[in-house]
């Protein structure tokens, strides 16, 4: 089957220049190249799905984070799902479905197999391996259960509540017999949260006063805040915390595209007087336990105790526009690009 001289005409999206503030279309470029000469330990993947995630904005900047920045001219790296076309690694065979964090925005990917895992396509649609059964699902699961430490009856607030992580946090909170308030950026999103996901309250932060809505809904205060956004929304939630509140800082998307640091509210007094805990976390901390969470989440999916909303954009060439949309709240649910 394996033919050493097989060549693939690849299309890939590269970083043309570093975004200045919000990313723009001409920060990206679609280019072609040839992929061939597979080496020992490598595989060639035909990419089927791209996962577009907010952390990728950080990788487009120069600043060092948990992963090194994308270089100018390099393919935009990020999570993706695909099919193995050729393998020179004993752990993989042609035809296997795989997922990896560094596959990137391209049609074909030649890669070493360190960061590649095999997916069982019989459990759920394969794109869930970058969604509910992948990084965002793990973030919701471990962030909620291990950082927020829910107690039945707690009032939970989650921001970016209709997104990949937020929609799951809210459902896990309902499964844990908590009261759930979701914060999101449109009427459609809010109505979905209340009608389809049974949230107790949804607040549209674009036209409602977050502080007042929370205060009147739960005057006794918020026990858990799962923070996906930071900024002003979070100031208003944290001004409403209850004694011993737990605040999980998962993401600060409201800050990712700022050119200058934003001055904010001082939260220390609320944290002090309520003896609250504020804890930031990166999902990779829990990597050793992903399998436990994937099995649990897969069971809940099968039993329809958790449902799952995807926002699918067709075509590799539309990935830049889709990513810009993610930074502006255009996506409704987990954002995916269908490449093949
Ligand atoms: P997502 O929620 O599916 O998409 C991002 C959403 O953020 C947008 O749809 C938009 O929804 C909202 N948003 C954008 N700009 C905003 C602003 N200025 N203020 C308030 N909301 C804004 O994305 P996701 O993948 O689930 O990620 C959510 C958060 O979790 C991000 O901050 C991400 O970085 C973080 N995260 C962290 C980890 C970790 O390991 N710590 C792992 C995964 C994700 P609206 O219409 O509601 O504004
Ligand atoms: C994310 C936001 C930030 C994320 C990771 C980070 C995996 C890490 C940032 C850093 O190390 O600087 O959504 O998801």
What does this 3D model show about the protein?
The protein has 340 residues and is of the alpha/beta class. It folds into two domains: 8-130 and 309-338, Quinone Oxidoreductase, Chain A, domain 1 (Alpha-Beta Complex), CATH 3.90.180.10; 135-284, Rossmann fold, CATH 3.40.50.720. The chain has helices at 56-59, 135-148, 166-175, 187-195, 210-217, 231-238, 268-273, 290-302, 319-327; strands spanning 8-15, 28-35, 42-51, 80-87, 97-100, 108-112, 116-118, 155-159, 179-184, 201-204, 222-227, 241-249, 277-280, 310-314, 334-338. α2 packs across α3 and α2 packs across α8 (290-302). The model has no long low-confidence stretch (mean pLDDT 96). NADP nicotinamide-adenine-dinucleotide phosphate is lined by residues 53-55, 135-136, 139, 160, 162-166, 184-186, 189, 228-229, 233, 250-251, 253-254, 281-283, 326, 329, 331, 334-335.
Compact overview of the structure:
It contains 9 helices and 15 strands. It has helices at 56-59, 135-148, 166-175, 187-195, 210-217, 231-238, 268-273, 290-302, 319-327; strands at 8-15, 28-35, 42-51, 80-87, 97-100, 108-112, 116-118, 155-159, 179-184, 201-204, 222-227, 241-249, 277-280, 310-314, 334-338.
């Amino acid at each position: 089957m394996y033919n050493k001289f097989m060549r693939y005409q690849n299309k890939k999206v590269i970083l043309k220049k570093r975004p200045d503030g919000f990313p723009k279309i001409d920060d990206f470029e679609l280019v072609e190249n040839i992929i061939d000469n597979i080496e020992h330990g490598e595989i060639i993947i035909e990419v089927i799905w791209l996962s577009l995630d907010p952390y990728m904005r950080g990788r487009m900047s120069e600043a060092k984070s948990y992963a090194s920045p994308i270089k100018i001219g390099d393919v935009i790296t990020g999570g993706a799902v695909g099919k193995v076309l050729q393998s020179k690694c004993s752990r993989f065979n042609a035809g296997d479905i795989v997922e990896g964090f560094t596959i990137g925005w391209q049609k074909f990917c030649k890669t070493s197999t360190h960061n590649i895992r095999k997916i069982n396509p019989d459990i759920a649609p394969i794109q869930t391996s970058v969604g509910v059964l992948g990084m965002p699902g793990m973030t919701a699961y471990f962030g909620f259960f291990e950082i927020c430490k829910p107690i039945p009856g707690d009032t939970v607030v989650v921001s970016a509540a209709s997104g990949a992580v937020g929609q799951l946090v809210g459902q896990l909170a309902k499964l844990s017999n908590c009261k759930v308030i979701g914060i999101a950026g449109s009427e459609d999103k809010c109505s979905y949260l209340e009608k389809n996901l049974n949230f107790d309250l949804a607040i549209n932060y674009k036209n409602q006063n977050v502080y007042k809505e929370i205060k009147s809904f739960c005057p006794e205060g918020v026990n858990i805040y799962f923070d996906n956004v930071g900024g002003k929304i979070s100031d208003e939630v944290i001004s409403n915390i209850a004694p011993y509140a737990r605040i999980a800082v998962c993401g600060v998307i409201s800050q990712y595209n700022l050119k200058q640091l934003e001055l904010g509210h001082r939260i220390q007094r609320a944290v002090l007087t309520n003896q609250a805990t504020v804890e930031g976390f990166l999902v990779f901390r829990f990597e050793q336990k992903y399998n436990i969470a994937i099995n649990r989440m897969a069971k809940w999916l099968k039993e329809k105790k958790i449902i799952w909303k995807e926002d699918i954009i067709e075509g590799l060439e539309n990935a830049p526009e889709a990513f810009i949309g993610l930074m502006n709240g255009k996506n409704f649910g987990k954002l995916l690009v269908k490449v093949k």
